[in-house]
Amino acid sequence: MAAQQVFGLPRLAGRLTADLIIRSPQEMNAIKEYSIDLRGNKVSAIENLGATENQFDCIDLSDNEIVKLEGFPRLPRLKTLLLNNNRIARIGDDLGDAISNLETLVMTGNRLTNLADLDNLSSLPNLTRLSLLDNMVCKKENYRLYTIHRLPKLKLLDFSKVKQKEREAARRQFGVLNREAEEHASRKAKTFTPGEPMPAPAVKAVEPRKPYVGPTAEQLTAIKAAIANATTLEEVARLEKALTSGQMPSDLLGTDLMDES
Questions:
Q1: Concatenated DSSP letters for 195-249?
Q2: What digits encode the pLDDT tens for the residues 148-160?
Q3: What number is the average pLDDT over the span 111-123?
């Protein structure tokens, strides 16, 4: 793409198309970054940034309607990303693969609400400057310490320098990030991945069955004698059932054992 500013051309609103990218102004900004201005196009999703051909150090997507921070192709040159005044409420989990060299991220005036919404920013290994001013998450208890905990390389948060005592306080409050990484790896190890063999199921030990021991000849004789001496139909039925099932009634078993002793 020609490296030149384009002025006076109409902007296409709604989608971030390759045509819109080509038509948008490009310049060398005040800190000597080659940047592209994609502000104010009512863009709702980040897409088609492959059309930039990885030519920019800075991309400005402020004043749009973006709802989720995702959709980047691999842009290893990108160092600064400006997303002021959008509607971002979620952050994708693959930023580190696409914009791994990002150093500055400005998301002032968005809709991030919970501390957990910031977790995926930890995939950006070189992020040193971050602004989340005017997001609801800034009002959460321990917001600053939690953000420092999740982003150990952060030097500037909300335009305020991260101090060593804050790093130490974050470590005391939330522990060492590596512990969470180990827990994540442990959970991942238990997750089935397509193409990999399934782990062998645990085999529950089965206790061997005890051999069946039926009544002795003496016990059978005792049952028959009890039937002959029974005085009620219920007693006869009970003893006949015991005779056919081979299970010695407890009362006769006890008598038999006492007789044997």
A1: TSPPPPPPPPP-PPPPPP----HHHHHHHHHHHHT--SHHHHHHHHHHHHHTPPP
A2: 999 999 999 999 9
A3: 96
